[in-house]
Aspartate aminotransferase (Ottowia oryzae), 798 residues
Amino acid sequence: MPLTFAQRLDNVETSAIRELFKLLGKPGIISFAGGFPDSAMFDVQGISAAVNTALQTEPGAALQYGATEGFQPLREQLSAFMAQKGAKDVAPDQLIVTTGSQQALDLLGKTLVDPGSKAIVEGPTFLATIQCFRLYGADLVSAPVDGDGVQVDKLEQLIVEHRPRFIYLIPTFGNPSGAMLSLERRKRVLELAVKYQTLIIEDDPYGDLYFDAPPPPSLLALTAEVPGSRDWLVHCGSLSKVLSPGLRVGWMVAPAALLAKATMCKQFSDAHTSTFAQATAAQYLADGHMPATLARVRQVYGQRARTMTDALRSELGDAIDFVAPQGGLFVWARLTGAGGKLKDGAELAKRAIEQGVAFVPGAPFYCANPDLSTLRLSFATVGDDKIREGIGRLARALG
Amino acid sequence: MPLTFAQRLDNVETSAIRELFKLLGKPGIISFAGGFPDSAMFDVQGISAAVNTALQTEPGAALQYGATEGFQPLREQLSAFMAQKGAKDVAPDQLIVTTGSQQALDLLGKTLVDPGSKAIVEGPTFLATIQCFRLYGADLVSAPVDGDGVQVDKLEQLIVEHRPRFIYLIPTFGNPSGAMLSLERRKRVLELAVKYQTLIIEDDPYGDLYFDAPPPPSLLALTAEVPGSRDWLVHCGSLSKVLSPGLRVGWMVAPAALLAKATMCKQFSDAHTSTFAQATAAQYLADGHMPATLARVRQVYGQRARTMTDALRSELGDAIDFVAPQGGLFVWARLTGAGGKLKDGAELAKRAIEQGVAFVPGAPFYCANPDLSTLRLSFATVGDDKIREGIGRLARALG
């Protein structure tokens, strides 16, 4: 007799992307497929100093069980970190620390989603969000995105039509679209939240990774300008893209009633986030290293992004269309089919592997109606010369 | 309009124990209420050395995203760690690393429990297990325990009656009962698993904390003696009680099909356990510190357990009944009512706080039919003199 599994597992399948990743071990391949920061950018020295200070000054706290809500000195540092970015009124007890922001998504699914609950996400959006919410039975609705982020008129129509339990957005340099929601649309989104009393989840792991000018303030910061909107906003932050994913330190700001429910659920999910990692992150922030670290990653990723977009234009010409990203880790592009060339992203991904370059086709990032011509290319982990070489290979794969 | 929460939240309530814990800040209180190891026992020097080595030799791995299944060097160390304790045939890829063993429970709930699914747990059992499984809708059935652990004849009756999706046991020095399942009963449990093709979950965070003779082999180790039983066994391990809870490093051994489903779920729960913590734990184990650390905690906790049981006998006499623990962190006791004294654990807990001593009443540890006369007393974090003083206060509270 086989084991009986829970029915919720029928809602998801192992990611199509995972199969592609198995091919990445091929020698000499240049990979634009990743969704992670460059290990070479990690401030190993600063993190080492932080963990040693934490273990010397408060070993009991760093190694013992901690509060489910999070290590208090880290909550204070994160409150201050957000204040520096314009969200000035988030007290430490208005956030909980999560095991990466992935856990924030899981806790939101657990607290908010019943089988059949409607929720709106961007099309395209983060693949693990789609899977995470579907595992709890969510019925996801896709809202269209352009170069300025989610299209708010369409979003309003979808809210009226579906009355979703929440709307999940990555407003700033989102994965995979790289799009930046305009200031005007940000305010409209918050107004819609209040008008329709609908929860907005702002996932913001990339907002610090801007290349030139800072992006508009986060939805969280803008709640100060839209009366009542703070009651309908959840904000998920993360140190993964700016400091280290291996720490698994994220956080979530939410209305008090929701934060209490999420905390109860977290108690039974993993009791608390590693205090060892939390105390290290708190010390790192307290040591004041973050501004220099951010300046460095912005400079390097900005340079790589320009190298990639320049190479795409010169090598692929009008066969590809994209909006140059202003931050984040990704170029999101569309095959135009110009000159009778290939328009299918998945097919191009296969041919590209043969040419020694990898990227992720865009279709899996849609919860419905995928655009099969799309590609996600990450420039974050590849040096400039290799980027040019890789895009050359991509051009050859396109033929 | 208030937020709409998922219906699964109606299955649980914030722990009664949490309310008690709020009282523990009272100055001068002696607390036997905790369920955690003594911070003073942490090997801060060994852990510091391990994290520094990990950051020097493989910073990329320690700080980057990692495989959902776990950091491979840690999986290898954990395989070797289990082999030393008699489970010799667990390959590294037959386990996944979890964010504390609490996450293993959550993943088991997510993969195995549909609303209304039956599952058998010990009465009493770990409180967070009850809540964790109920959050997924489990209908829990309580199997009675005596000084030799779960009563296997009763367990068989309950399996036949309820055909549960799984049976969850803490066979060795369980929380809260402290009981040690006898060797004979261990084999019977595995035979029942095969006979009824029913999954057994062995939660084993305390097995290393024996005071004199080692306990019988784990169910995992004993699967080698009961043909077919390995296909029906899940084993959850943890470094929390023996090394540091703050690392949040646990692991789960399970049949391949279940392990694959749990891995998929973990991908959407927290992507992976902190590689920073995993690399540190792997290095600590590789450095060979664990045997000395275990010897030290066994000696200290054994001494404290004897001090507590001696004091209970001399101070409370026949008003209290218990089986002296042979390992773990807890004395599980029953008020007898002898001499007309109080028999209600919750009432005694209130009076005890007034006398300056805290413990946890036993009733919340039952998923059904609580024994109201029970108490859980942890000796782990209190020195010998304070244990004697605290038990004296408890005797005064009992009147």
User: Anything to note?
Assistant: Chain A is about 40% helix and 15% strand. Chain A has a mean pLDDT of 95. The CA atoms of residues 145 and 151 of chain A lie 6 Å apart. Residues 64-288 of chain A form a domain with the Aspartate Aminotransferase; domain 2 fold (CATH 3.40.640.10).
